[in-house]
Amino acid sequence: MNVIQTHPTLPEGWTKGAVMALISEVAPHIGLRPARLAVLNYIIGRTRASDWTSPHREPVFFGAQDLAAVELGKTSRQLRTDEAALSKLGLIVKRVAANGARYGRAGLGLILTPLIARLEEFIALRDRLRAERRHLRALKDLRSLRLGHMKRCITILPSSANDDPEIARILASFDKWPRSDALSRLGLERLNAHLKASSDLCNSLDDWLEKRGLSSDQPAENFRPFTQNTREETQTVKTPPAVDNSGRHAEIAQSEPPSSIPCPAPPALTPENLYRIAATAYA
Fold this sequence. Notes:
With 283 residues, the protein is mainly alpha-helical. The protein has helices spanning 16-26, 34-45, 65-72, 76-88, 113-117, 119-155, 165-175, 187-211, 246-254, 271-281, and strands at residues 60-61, 93-95, 109-111. The protein has a three-stranded antiparallel beta sheet. The longest helix has 37 residues, at 119-155. The relative contact order is 0.08.
């Protein structure tokens, strides 16, 4: 009695194209370098789509290694090294004949069943990475709000703040904040620590302003804004004295408007007048 062997298959709705997209997304986190990712995608792309969903068949790449090397722009030796690395990562099984030959009918070649067996693991990894990216974006947005708050508060500091040691401490700490484009490289632990410190610094500056009747929304009257590390040159522009033209306006208003010269009425267009005009024009 023959026992029909079954193999793991893709979940409903999944295709080999979706598998390629999934592996490409998690590749840096499973030790898959870009060059070897290209080899894996080449192998996956040359398997039958139905072999990924049938429990009675395995997705197998049985193409000639020499031809694959040429199409990938590699030497045969380089491709063998890549195949060995993919096998070591648990993504393929290399099953060939004693002489290294590969036959589709015999199921000999590069077997991709291990990739299907680990699909749930890679889906979970992808979802975790996406959640971390969303969390990172939220933290960066929060840091952006605090950065803007600090800048607004600094612009309303009075000139007397130059000599205040508390403000000197706050500004020195603010100068050490990492650049916005460097936040992603801090890692979540260091970024969270920075956000805690930035919150404390914002509170310190808010407290200082509140004690002096200032807020981050509106500076107090007669306070000259504090400018940090800037020197602005201003020019004093004298306003010309106002000229009182009220007398002249009254004089013009009381004067009589000039009489207009009446325009003579045009002559009536009688036959005699038309004859006279024509005779004058051609005289």
